[in-house]
Amino acid sequence: MSFNLAELSAEEKNRIELDKQAAFLVWKLKQGKAGPEVFTQHQETLRTTDEQTCFQQSVDKYKRVMGVM
């Protein structure tokens, strides 16, 4: 089954991008290439509370999946 991401709304595309950014930052934390302050720094760049909530949920999800506490 395939999905055409170009057909998604701008909001859905943004959520996917935030999820990717969260996954990358958790990976960097796990690899020792960044400290926990990267999450706060990135969160400050987000425009809306909805984006911040979405990002935080993704961070929590990837921390669980990657075994980072």
UniProtKB/TrEMBL annotation:
Domain of life according to the entry: Bacteria
Pfam families hit by this protein: DUF3283
Family annotation (InterPro entries): DUF3283 (IPR021700), PolIII_theta_sf (IPR036745)
GO molecular function: DNA binding; DNA-directed DNA polymerase activity
Protein's GO biological process: DNA replication
Name under which the protein is recorded: Pyridoxamine 5-phosphate oxidase
Gene source species: Vibrio gazogenes DSM 21264 = NBRC 103151
Lineage start: Bacteria, Pseudomonadati, Pseudomonadota, Gammaproteobacteria, Vibrionales
